[in-house]
């Protein structure tokens, strides 16, 4: 071929000279089978460095890459996660999504361990008046969460542990245009060696040809795992956690002033300043969170219709959008749609059902098998319970640093011993758990309000809608909190009457999250459909077939309606992890 394959090069079998250089058959044979010696992956820590700088160049995607990054990938036998995303989505949203998917569990565990350790150490400082004997020591717990959440992959890499992922810009050769094209068209080979397909879902993801092709290549392998997370959801969850952390800190400042009696004027002024600062932070974060949440709910509301009416024929691709010319050099580039269609024919064509095309077979698979699984977890106003629990843990576990020494100091053999101490300790445990349970309920109520207010979002001033929702949330949260706090304050230290509002809140949480993920239904018609440009090279259905199908469906030929599949597959083709 005039050059020696280097780095990421794929094995190139001999070809008949009669084939066109851009024929899909030739491209498929060339690039669908990846040479094991050329399988590349990159550590996840590299993808996340500098807050996702490798996700830049959103407009040109893989066509605009620094070739110096080619050395970052490594030869591997297996890929842990294949990262699927569209280039138009903000890189910061993608980074937050990846941090949440891969770091949140480690951050939660680390926060719990550090909080417990510092809490027991505070027992020895109890009553000394030092910083470690103050509620401010809880900041060590929050700092632990932030550090591990942001840099867990980097911390692991220091010990030689790394998660191997595929990111097209880093795992496909960039130093040679021919090798680069081969790598792009060889995505199926990378997918075959991937354990998990990690989808950073955005509204545009299912409208991109290569994203749907990645899905097809992965689904055909059988019962494999797909991780799917909306990119905006991670930011919303972190804002919700920050809001509740600000509430906890402001409450601790007020409670601390109440315990100290009448402090000097300067200390009182500093407390007011602290409360004011955290109040401003709380209001700002809540406003941004509600505003973003309404947009996310709009996208999730369109997701059922988008999946149920999925047609790969409508997917947009980069080459067709630019007239099959490189945007910078002007050179002709092959049609991706032609290659993808040919591969789908290889994978999904059924000889016994000639009347059903391979494209329709793939469309049906997405609609009838993948869509129900995704909608069960991500459709409607669903907030996955695991996500909510992580947020609650991140906000409340640091306060174990304050509660553990308080529980230890409460043990007094002369006053509270045996069963009396157990009752007192149970009251203290309910006091600690009531806040995360309230937070859990309010997070779910918040998403339900987004869903309920969504029809008004297009007709009402969004600022007013945000203010109304914030006001409702404050009233509901205060009412539920005061119901417990009042009973706790007026009852004896060994009374379990606070257990009544506590149990009521537990029941409310169970009711709010019980089977909530199975209530999502497909819209009759999504509000928006992004139709990709059709390729002049790709094969479209014959006009007679389209008209015949229209007549069979009882509608006027030539008019397009959204077809919503009413049947769902009995078995699950893939496992969707959220």
Annotation, overall tally of beta strands: 7
Residue windows where pLDDT falls under 50 for at least 5 positions? 1-22, 517-577
- As laid out across the biggest beta sheet, the strand order is 2-1-4-3-5-6-7
Rg to the nearest angstrom?
28 Å
Question: Could you characterize what this model shows?
Answer:
The protein has 578 residues and is mainly alpha-helical. The protein has one domain (29-555, 562-577). Helix content is 57%, strand content 6%. It contains 19 helices and 7 strands. The protein has helices at residues 24-31, 44-52, 91-125, 139-158, 168-171, 177-185, 187-192, 209-219, 231-260, 265-308, 318-321, 336-348, 358-378, 385-396, 400-409, 419-457, 462-490, 499-513, 543-552, and strands at 40-43, 74-75, 79-84, 164-166, 194-201, 225-230, 575-577. Strands 2-1-4-3-5-6-7 form a 7-stranded mixed beta sheet, sandwiched between helices. Helix 10 crosses helix 16. The longest helix is centred in the middle third of the chain and has 44 residues, at 265-308. The relative contact order is 0.12.
What's the topology here?
Layout lengths: L23 H8 L8 E4 H9 L21 E2 L3 E6 L6 H35 L13 H20 L5 E3 L1 H4 L5 H9 L1 H6 L1 E8 L7 H11 L5 E6 H30 L4 H44 L9 H4 L14 H13 L9 H21 L6 H12 L3 H10 L9 H39 L4 H29 L8 H15 L29 H10 L22 E3 L1
Parallel strand pairs: 3-4, 3-5, 5-6, 6-7
Antiparallel strand pairs: 1-2, 1-4
Question: What does this entry show, briefly?
Answer:
With 578 residues, this protein is mainly α. The protein is 57% helix and 6% strand.
Keywords, please?
single chain; 578 residues; mainly alpha; 7-stranded mixed sheet; 7 strands; 57% helix; 6% strand; disordered C terminus
């Amino acid at each position: 071929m005039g050059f020696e394959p280097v780095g990421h090069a794929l094995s190139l079998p001999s070809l008949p000279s009669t084939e066109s250089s851009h024929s899909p058959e030739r491209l498929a044979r060339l690039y669908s089978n990846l040479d094991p010696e050329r399988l590349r992956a990159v550590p996840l820590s590299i993808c996340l460095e500098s807050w996702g700088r490798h996700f830049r160049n959103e407009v040109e995607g893989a066509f605009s890459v620094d070739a110096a990054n080619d050395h970052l990938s490594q030869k591997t036998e297996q890929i842990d996660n294949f990262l699927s995303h569209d280039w138009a989505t903000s890189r910061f949203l993608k980074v937050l999504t990846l941090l949440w998917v891969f770091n949140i569990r480690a951050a939660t565990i680390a926060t719990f361990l550090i909080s417990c350790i510092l809490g027991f150490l505070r027992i020895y400082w109890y009553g000394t008046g030092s910083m470690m004997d103050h509620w401010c020591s809880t900041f060590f717990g929050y700092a632990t969460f932030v550090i591990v959440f942001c840099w867990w992959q980097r911390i692991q890499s220091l010990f030689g542990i790394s998660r191997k992922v595929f990111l097209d810009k880093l795992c496909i050769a960039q130093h040679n245009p021919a090798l680069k094209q081969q790598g792009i068209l060889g995505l199926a080979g990378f997918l075959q060696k991937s354990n998990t397909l990690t989808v950073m879902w955005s509204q545009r993801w299912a409208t991109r040809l290569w994203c749907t092709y990645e899905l097809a290549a992965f689904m055909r392998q059988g019962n494999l795992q797909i991780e799917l997370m909306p990119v905006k959801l991670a930011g919303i969850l972190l804002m919700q956690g920050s809001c509740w952390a600000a509430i906890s800190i402001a409450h601790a400042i007020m409670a601390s002033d109440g315990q100290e009696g009448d402090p000097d004027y300067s200390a009182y002024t500093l407390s007011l300043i602290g409360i004011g600062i955290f109040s401003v932070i709380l209001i700002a974060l809540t406003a941004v969170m509600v505003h973003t949440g309404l947009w996310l709910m709009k996208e999730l509301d369109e997701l059922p219709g988008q999946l149920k009416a999925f047609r790969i024929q409508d997917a947009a691709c980069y080459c067709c959008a630019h007239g099959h010319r490189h945007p910078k050099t002007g050179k002709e580039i092959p049609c991706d749609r032609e290659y993808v269609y040919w591969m789908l024919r290889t994978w999904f064509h059924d000889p016994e059902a000639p009347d059903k095309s391979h494209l329709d077979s793939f469309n049906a698979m997405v609609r009838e098998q993948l869509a129900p699984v995704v909608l069960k977890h991500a459709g409607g106003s669903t907030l996955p319970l695991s996500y909510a629990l992580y947020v609650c843990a991140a906000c409340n576990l640091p306060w174990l640093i304050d509660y553990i020494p308080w529980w230890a100091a409460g043990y007094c053999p002369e006053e509270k011993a045996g069963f009396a101490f157990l009752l007192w300790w149970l009251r203290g445990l309910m006091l600690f758990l009531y806040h995360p349970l309230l937070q859990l309920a309010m997070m779910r109520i918040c998403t339900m309000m987004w869903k309920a207010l969504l029809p008004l979002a297009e007709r009402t001033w969004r600022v007013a809608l945000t203010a109304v929702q914030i006001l409702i949330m404050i009233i509901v949260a205060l009412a539920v909190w005061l119901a417990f706090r009042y009973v706790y304050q007026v009852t004896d230290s060994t009374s379990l009457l606070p257990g009544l509002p506590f149990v009521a809140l537990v029941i409310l949480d169970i009711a709010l999250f019980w089977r909530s993920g199975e209530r999502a239904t497909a819209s009759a018609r999504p509000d928006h459909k992004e139709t990709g440009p059709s390729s002049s090279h790709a094969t479209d259905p014959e006009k007679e077939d389209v008209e015949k199908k229209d007549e069979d469906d009882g509608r006027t030929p030539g008019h397009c309606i959204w077809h919503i599949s009413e049947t769902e597959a009995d078995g699950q083709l893939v496992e969707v992890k959220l």
